[in-house]
Amino acid sequence: MSEYNLELGKRIYKARINKEITLKQLGDLVDLSESTVQRYEKGKIKNVDIEMVKKFAKALGVLPAHLLGWEMSDEYNNSITIPVYGSIPAGMPLEAIEDIQGEVDIPVEWMKGNKKYIALKVKGDSMYPKYLEGDTVIILVQPDCETGDDCACYVNGFEATLKTVKKTTGKIELKPINPNYSPRTYNHPGEVKIVGIVKELRRKI
User: Fold this and answer.
1) What is the pLDDT of residue 51?
2) Strand 184-187 relative to strand 171-175: parallel, antiparallel, unpaired?
3) Which of 31, 46, 55, 57 maximizes the CB count within 10 A of its CB?
4) Phi, psi values for residue 67, rounded to 5°
5) Spatial distance between the Cα atoms of 104 and 122, rounded to a whole number of angstroms
């Protein structure tokens, strides 16, 4: 039993627990038996195939590099790594989205209360100057929000967009920050689905 396989197993286990799925559920996602997945987590698989690592990573919503320990946070024991999506198409499970453009660490304590987070790359300049194209926003996934929240939203079933939300009875207004763009009003519920609210902005300098 190698130290490498033990570390890989620990990362698979930690990612599975944070995703809140069982051994059997993970096994179903990667086409392995529950007992074989458990052997991976305990570091008992002698020859680990890189393609299998990719399957685990996709099922767990992390990058293969994270499971392999190639990019590890100094605060690893206090953080969890989540993928950064370039796009989030409506109706597609996160584990099936292949438009992953990196990864970021978030504090484990954020996950308390079964909270879920995703990271999304900002596209365009409709939210300038608060958000710049290429910024990463950490989204707390939840189906509702308050007026004034910056949210990722699906509009009529299309790819998620980032806008400031203003709610009135039966209506929801999605407001760009950039004055060059006009706000738009939709029926709600119906035409707009809230993905979640912005928890944090990450920007590279």
Assistant:
1) 84
2) antiparallel
3) 57
4) -65, -30
5) 14
* Active site (annotated) includes residue 126: yes
Active site residue 163: yes
Nearest to 67 by CA among 3, 2, 9, 1: 9
CA 165 to chain centre: 21
Residue 110 backbone dihedrals phi, psi, to 5 degrees: -65, -25
The model's pLDDT over 56-105, given as tens digits with 9 standing for 90+, comes to 988 888 888 778 776 544 444 567 778 889 988 877 777 677 788 888 88
Which of 163, 171, 175, 204 does the annotation list as catalytic?
A: 163
Output the pTM of the full model: 0.64
- Give me the phi and psi of 23, to 5 degrees please: -55, -45
63 — phi, psi (to 5°)?
-85, 150
**Three-state secondary structure along 63-105?**
CHHHHHCCCCCCCHHHEEEEEEECCCCCCCCHHHCCCEEEEEE
